[in-house]
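Technical note accompanying the year-one report. For the benefit of new consortium partners, we illustrate the data format agreed upon in the data management plan: each record pairs a sequence with a structure-token string. No post-processing was applied to the example shown here.
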Amino acid sequence: MKKRLAAAAMAAVMAAASLTACSGGKTETQAPTKAAGTEAAGDTQAAGDTQAAASGEKVTLNLCWWGNQTRNDVTKKAVDLYMSQNPDVEIKVEFTDWSGYWDKLSAMAAGGNLPDIIQQDYSYINQYQKSGQLADLTPFIEDGTIDTSKIPDSIIESGTIDGKCYALSLGSNAPMMVYDKAILEEAGVTLPEQLTVDELYDISKTIYEKTGAKTYYDGGINMMQIVARANGSHLFDELNAGDTASSKIHFGNVEKFATAEFSISPDLLAEKNPDVVETKPIIDETTWNDFSFSNQFISISNTSGRDLGITMYPTMTGASEQPMYLKPSQFFSIAETSQHKKEAAEFINWFTNSVECNEILMAERGIPINTEVADAIKPKVDEASQVVFEYIAKVSELATPIDAPDPAGKGEVEALGKTTVEDLRYGDVTGDQAAESFVAESRKILEEAAK
């Protein structure tokens, strides 16, 4: 127990140290509340824009995103370029890591002071749209302020709710397993483009025996969703119905890996904190692998300083459906409370459609959604980015449709999943017990959030 408490304390210190601008905390556990003044935002916007134009003063926009140091550096560089080209606009930036971002954003929403431009995730847009926090981008698309002529309709649809676009994707993305090429070569192992979980278990054993490198198995919600999809289902449909089928498979796999000699210990995993790029156990070769999304590959590769490869998330032996999918890497939305929606839309248009901007970003957020921009920067990207371009092309050949956006309560369900997996890894519960309690509690959370 002392070890466990020490590990938790170390993880908390590491997470706190990773926050570079916004204050952070644990994953969001409640949907955003409707901010005071939202209903009057349209009126105040018009007045604000008119006053700014009349006075000749700069329009100030606030921009907030989550990310690691690589994303922070390139985004700030792009913002500086935009301001140099648009001297009448000042953009103030604010960022944090993923784990603290949603708590920060929820607090800002509750206080009625959301930034003008918000980085959004596919998992959360329904919650923020439902609570009236997001502006409808459709008018700006229709009048050409945001040019979508070189963007596939499916990309626009990914940020559309009830016929209105509330978020514009910033890149195409897919789940991935990252691996250390040198460790695999030393072990004499070659990975297929997509393993099964059983194959991953056997290969992990071989790698440990030959090299001593440990394995990390993803116990989080991303793997839960992959398991459900491979099982011909969708995770949140099962949780809403109280169905434990996919959860039992998932937590059974977590238990199997947790009890294996080749797996990283829960104490060391807590110390390393795989949720933060800079401390992922693959970075210092504690593990030979990691699970993430493809838009993080560049940062992981750059931070490790080694030659890394990508393969797909593992599927199940005898899967009834291909679980891989393409996902919007993240979105930009405009706050309904923004007094400068048009200027915010103009920045989003530039961020999306400018080759010059994307030559700075270099696909850090995923493959550019503007097809001409993607073609223009592909020959210029570094080796790590080329790997991502090729990976997305492979996934697109077999990907099945993405699940519907996650429902309200997703953040609390995800937090519950992390706690449940921690208990499982420490041996406090069995896989079946974990599945039963997780599904029962998740169903309550989702029912309450839907009210």
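Partners are asked to follow this layout when depositing records. Residues 424 and 430 are 6 Å apart (CA to CA).
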